[in-house]
């Protein structure tokens, strides 16, 4: 080899080493994907339901699966506010869904909140949000769209100053027409939304892929790390709005689906909710398969673009769905179908794959993610969640003994809005441990109903043990629930 060839080789190797060192020191990217209304049992690898999720199954084998993650206030807006602020509903003020009726109470995500997206923006990240937002209340004159034609208005534009650091924007507040979804793009004004004739999750995956590839440079700054949220609406109702190809995939699953129908918590056909479950279960499973396929497309793009190793990917959901089980239409209840959510996190560079029973709460996600990303010093003191970054990295450390359960009925707040926020002190509170679920429904200041389920001996939560185990109720109340009420400054305790 001559001198010229040696010099070229040395320059080439030096470039590789330099590039390797540069990548090693880079801040990690973040990809956060959460479909709406997907219970934890709707993961193929769990074996609980005959759902086909090959991409999530593979993803789970590469990451940490937290099978005991819970949605502490299992309804859309409260979850999303907890996720972005790291604070429980009493503190961030969003105790119910943000609709036009909640405008009376000024209930929406406050501009003054310091969200994790604000921090990542400040730290130099290119940020993006795709899909359902549901943190703004509609106001007059209402956006002329289908979700705003009833007494309750749902959809609204999110103005740039209310986006909490998200630069790229392709979103809507809430719009439940999955086969022809509606979006506002980054620079669109309030009256400049557009419709798309494509299934929502598929279209949002297309947009996410464009953001990741960034071929024209219009989606993000390639010199910066990125943080992208993809918030898909399905498997949220209506359950008949999905491509037929996913439904056909369940033609040979009828026998397995019948086993689900025979579950003790599914009522018989004389009951409206028994009929509801039978009518929708196949399509709901098919929706999850569709979401899985689109998630797989996004993951494949990460890999193809060489972004996989240094990107933290989280897959979860805002809450589950009873689908009529226990006589409950969907969420806002303490049953596992509503509270227990999928949570899988993958970071090939740092996290070793495993399954774990950590009782993760929604506000914990904020500090855990920032801590993993190297920004623990940036976490505001008002954040109420706990970072479990070290626990995820090492499998060692102190773990919580319970998760808070919190539900306030929005209709009652509106009817009694003269007493807001003191009337937050009614309705349902409880705790979920690794074995028990305790729920106390305060009907008035002086009357309540108490429910206690042992999920190990009674996984379908069919037997309320509260009357026969008063000592256990008292123990869970004093040792688990009261500390949560004190921490969150909840007037319910009075």
Layout of strands and helices, then pairs:
Elements: H1 3-24, E1 29-33, H2 54-62, E2 64-66, H3 76-85, H4 89-92, H5 116-122, E3 126-132, E4 168-172, E5 182-185, E6 194-195, H6 200-213, E7 226-231, H7 244-248, H8 254-261, H9 272-304, E8 311-316, H10 336-339, E9 343-346, E10 354-356, H11 362-372, H12 389-394, E11 403-407, H13 410-415, E12 427-432, E13 436-444, E14 447-454, H14 470-487
Helix count from the secondary structure assignment? 14
Could you say what the CATH architecture of the largest domain is? 3-Layer(aba) Sandwich
Overall pLDDT: 94
| Residues in helix, % | 25-40%
Quick one: CATH superfamily of the largest domain?
Answer: Alkaline Phosphatase, subunit A
CA-atom Rg in angstroms: 23 Å
Written overview of the protein:
With 494 residues, the chain is α/β, with parallel strands linked by helices. The protein folds into 2 domains: 27-394, Alkaline Phosphatase, subunit A (3-Layer(aba) Sandwich); 403-493, Arylsulfatase, C-terminal domain (2-Layer Sandwich). It is 32% helix and 15% strand. The protein is built from 14 helices and 14 strands. It has helices at 3-24, 54-62, 76-85, 89-92, 116-122, 200-213, 244-248, 254-261, 272-304, 336-339, 362-372, 389-394, 410-415, 470-487; strands at 29-33, 64-66, 126-132, 168-172, 182-185, 194-195, 226-231, 311-316, 343-346, 354-356, 403-407, 427-432, 436-444, 447-454. The strands form 2 sheets. Strands 6-5-4-3-7-1-8-9-2-10 form a 10-stranded mixed beta sheet, sandwiched between helices. A 4-stranded antiparallel beta sheet has the order 11-12-13-14, with helices on one face. α3 (76-85) runs parallel beside α11 (362-372) and α6 (200-213) runs parallel beside α9. The N and C termini lie far apart (85 Å). Mean pLDDT is 94; it is low at 6-24.
């Amino acid at each position: 080899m001559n001198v010229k060839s040696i010099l070229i080789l040395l320059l080439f190797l030096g470039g590789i080493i330099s590039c390797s060192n540069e990548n090693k020191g880079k801040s990690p990217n973040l990809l956060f994907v959460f479909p709406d209304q997907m219970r934890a049992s709707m993961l193929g690898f769990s074996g609980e339901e005959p759902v086909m999720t090959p991409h999530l199954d593979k993803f789970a084998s590469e990451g940490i699966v937290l099978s005991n993650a819970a949605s502490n206030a299992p309804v859309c807006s409260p979850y999303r506010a907890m996720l972005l602020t790291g604070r429980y509903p009493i503190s961030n003020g969003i105790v119910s869904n943000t609709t036009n009726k909640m405008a009376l109470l000024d209930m929406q995500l406050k501009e003054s909140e310091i969200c994790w997206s604000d921090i990542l923006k400040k730290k130099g990240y290119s940020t993006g949000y795709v899909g359902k937002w549901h943190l703004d209340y509609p106001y007059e004159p209402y956006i002329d769209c289908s979700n705003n034609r009833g007494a309750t208005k749902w959809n609204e534009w999110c103005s740039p100053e209310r986006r909490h650091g998200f630069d790229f924007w392709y979103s809507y507040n809430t719009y439940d027409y999955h086969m022809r979804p509606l979006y506002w793009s980054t620079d669109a004004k309030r009256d400049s939304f557009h419709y798309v004739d494509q299934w929502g999750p598929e279209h949002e995956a297309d947009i996410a892929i464009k953001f990741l590839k960034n071929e024209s440079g219009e989606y993000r700054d390639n010199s910066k790390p990125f943080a992208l949220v993809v918030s898909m609406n399905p498997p949220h109702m209506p359950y008949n709005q999905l491509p037929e190809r996913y439904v056909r995939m369940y033609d040979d699953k009828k026998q397995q689906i019948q086993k689900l129908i025979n579950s003790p918590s599914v009522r018989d056909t004389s009951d409206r909710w028994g009929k509801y479950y039978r009518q929708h279960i196949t399509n709901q499973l098919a929706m999850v398969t569709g979401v899985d396929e689109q998630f797989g497309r996004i993951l494949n793009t990460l890999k193809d673009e060489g972004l996989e190793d240094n990107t933290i990917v989280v897959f979860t959901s805002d809450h589950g769905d009873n689908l009529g089980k226990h006589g409950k239409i969907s969420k806002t209840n303490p049953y596992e179908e509503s509270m227990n959510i999928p949570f899988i996190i993958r970071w090939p560079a740092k996290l070793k794959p495993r399954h774990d029973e950590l009782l993760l709460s929604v506000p914990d996600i904020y500090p855990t993610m920032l801590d993993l990303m190297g920004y623990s010093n940036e976490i505001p003191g008002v954040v109420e969640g706990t970072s479990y970054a070290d626990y995820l990295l090492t499998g060692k450390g102190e773990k919580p003994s319970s998760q808070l359960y919190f539900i306030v009925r929005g209709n009652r707040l509106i009817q009694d809005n003269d007493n807001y926020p003191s009337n937050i002190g009614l309705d349902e509170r409880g705790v979920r441990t690794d074995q028990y679920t305790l729920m106390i429904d305060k009907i008035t200041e002086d009357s309540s109903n108490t429910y206690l389920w042992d999920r190990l001996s009674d996984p379908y939560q069919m037997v309320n043990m509260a009357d026969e185990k008063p000592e256990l109720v008292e123990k869970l109340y004093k040792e688990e629930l009261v500390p949560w009420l004190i921490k969150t400054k909840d007037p319910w305790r009075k």
